[in-house]
Amino acid sequence: xxxxxxxxxxxxxxDLAEVRRWDREVDVIVVGLGAAGAxxxxxxxxxxxEVLVLERAGGGGGTSALSTGQLYLGGGTAIQQACGFxxxxxxxxxxxxxxxxxxxxxxxxxxxxxxxxxxxxxxVAEGVPFKESFYGEGSYTLTDDxxxxxxxxxxxxxxxxxxxxxRGHTVLFDGVESGGVLMxxxxxxxxxxxxxxxxNTLVETLVVDPHRRVVGVVARIVGGEQCYRARRGxxxxxxxxxxxxxxxxxxxxxxxxxxxxxxxxxxxxxxIRMGMAAGGDAIRMGNGCIVLPISPPKILIxxxxxxxxxxxxxxxxxxxxxxxxxxLLHQAGEIFLIVDDExxxxxxxxxxxxxxxxxPAELERELGFPEGSLQHTLAVYNEHASRxxxxxxxxxxxxxxxxxx
Amino acid sequence: xxxxxxxxxxxxxxDLAEVRRWDREVDVIVVGLGAAGAxxxxxxxxxxxEVLVLERAGGGGGTSALSTGQLYLGGGTAIQQACGFxxxxxxxxxxxxxxxxxxxxxxxxxxxxxxxxxxxxxxVAEGVPFKESFYGEGSYTLTDDxxxxxxxxxxxxxxxxxxxxxRGHTVLFDGVESGGVLMxxxxxxxxxxxxxxxxNTLVETLVVDPHRRVVGVVARIVGGEQCYRARRGxxxxxxxxxxxxxxxxxxxxxxxxxxxxxxxxxxxxxxIRMGMAAGGDAIRMGNGCIVLPISPPKILIxxxxxxxxxxxxxxxxxxxxxxxxxxLLHQAGEIFLIVDDExxxxxxxxxxxxxxxxxPAELERELGFPEGSLQHTLAVYNEHASRxxxxxxxxxxxxxxxxxx
Lengths: 405, 405
Prior knowledge:
The structure is a homodimer.
Chain A: H1 3-6, E1 13-15, E2 24-31, H2 35-46, E3 51-54, E4 70-72, H3 78-82, H4 89-99, H5 106-114, H6 116-125, E5 147-148, H7 158-161, E6 168-170, H8 178-193, E7 196-198, E8 202-208, E9 214-221, E10 224-236, H9 245-251, H10 270-277, E11 304-306, H11 320-330, E12 336-338, H12 360-367, H13 373-385
Parallel strand pairs in A: 1-8, 2-3, 2-10, 3-7
Antiparallel strand pairs in A: 4-6, 5-6, 8-9, 9-10, 11-12
């Protein structure tokens, strides 16, 4: 087996007997200083532990710092209240249970929802800033606004399942890169907490005792290998694996088609591979967050999304991650947004103009669609839209548009 | 964690130090006597090993005995030649590489194809009977015939990628239950080989030495626990996990919708869970073989498959497993085959008659489809079918039918 193929597999373990000496001893070691690592470190310290955070990069942030800095919080946070939106833990729970796939983890979702207001207050107390404002142009914010619909809450059939509320809470920053602010604040909070952060330290291997209990880590720093003992536990928060070609091939080959990868260099799956080596059971490894936003600007939702057969396949108001999944996994990664002059706007997200035409028939030809396909789709759509209806995807009448072709 | 949730997780391991005595010692232990276990046992014995096969049921057969007894073989087998079909390992390889998903295992497919003729001869030599005949009504045979197209070889775009050949080789039996004959013959071959079969023996745990090497198994028989040493290796062939609710929930929740499960009681995932406990890396756990045949009878392929939006979504000639996957995973498990009086026939596979109507408009209403949806689908289909074309899925002209509605 080649070293390269090994990159897709669990790491080796180090037996305690092989550790000659501990270079350092603490209660809890946190591997990775992204959002999860920061929260874990702060809380472990607060619980009385001596905490050492090991980060492979030159400083904290990780992939969280590259994110849009949007947190899914609800149940009646201060921002939701200030903006006039009613919400409850129960409605949030009902929505998530219905929208998190075929086997949602009920206990985890319950816990997440019941403590969501508390999580928001925790973030604020740690210095993470939010503005008391609502943004209606899309699921992520291009401005310094906070609250947005960052899911399918308003999308059929969810309004019938749970009372909709916007729950995306974006950290205060004028632009999309709010994740940087989130991590700047959380890293500062870790420093204040008294947890010790050691950067430029790549944790490579877990150390196990004869009972296979994890008792420390082996890390690489400039100058060589170090062994750190963790008296009470090691917390792995070393994220995803999208930058590990072998793991993507092995576990999530469908994701190879994604062009832009929102990930730090460190997302090479080492955290997962170490956990697996210690007997951890990695599940849902094929899942990824596949994002394909058509808004902002919101007017583009009035366009019509079709596949290569000229058929509509999803409501145009679908959450960007739902659209991304369906487009990549069910439509071979190729979808088209049809707009007329009145609806056209330059999308914020990267997209190509595939064709421009004067009629549906011409557009079909330009795009290589089957003759009649798009024409019929538009004809049926128009028939219903003229009555303010969409029996296909139950779009809100306000999102429908009559295409006067 | 409850015992029930434990059913979804790797089993415990037994340390060698805890084994007080070996109840039996052999070179190779094979766990499970389905098709894979039988082949492994025969070949291990032939290679000179002392072989013990442990089967939890009262006798060999397993899920293989419940199958249609169809083996994918090609490259120019005696049956292919007798029936006048040309094939080569290279064409078989090209087809499988193109049709086995986004990350096919090239080395394994190459090996499989290069030795396929040899595999066929091996089965014949072990006493597995095949008739020199071709069956054209569907991918599995209702008769005693052997050869059939059991894949997408004839389906667009595969004929352009590889020269099509029928490669489904069904074991001689007059009916669909050829798997019983396959296993009857293979179990007899195991007995002849000199491998020892011990039934009513449930292997529960692997035994590992201090280097984590697997050196034996712990098994449950009537009367208690036994420990068997394997000097040279343990081969796990204890199949799938469709009858383990916790594993399905955990790894393949989409498959919960499947109504009929072609599996023996023993398919509770214990083989996989034991392998994982020993450090085995279980991959593609979300995959299942989801079968949804519309033929035989073949005339039903002339119908039109649509989803709940009245749209065609796949070529009607698609292989039953491709159709099953797309129907379950992309169309929420709900699809409709539209046929007229001329095309109607009672399908062999279970199916419900959802509605009967005199016109597409009436059928739409009966099925609750959006108004105009099916009418437009049929109109576009008819336009093309009248010219002998299907630009949507490139069906063979002979499979197209003009619907005179």
